[in-house]
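Q: Sequence in, structure out?
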Amino acid sequence: MQPEVMDNDVVLLDQSKTRPHPGPIFAVGIEDAIYLKRVDMLPGQIILKSVNTDYEPIRIDMGEQTSDQFRVIGQVLWVGREYK
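A: Exactly. Output:
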């Protein structure tokens, strides 16, 4: 999510906000990986977008096989970094 969220930044999540909607950044889990992404929703599909254009959107079909591998952990509320 560079340049908004950089490596080694500290991220504060609101884990009560697990219903994604366009706009904010969400922490999402896919299988064993965790990503910070903006979320778009289409019928039967979730699209995870990065601010960094080097990364293509991740499309997730919300069929029965993949829906149990995808989870929304929470909405990003705050990002902080150590000044060096």
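The radius of gyration is 13 Å.
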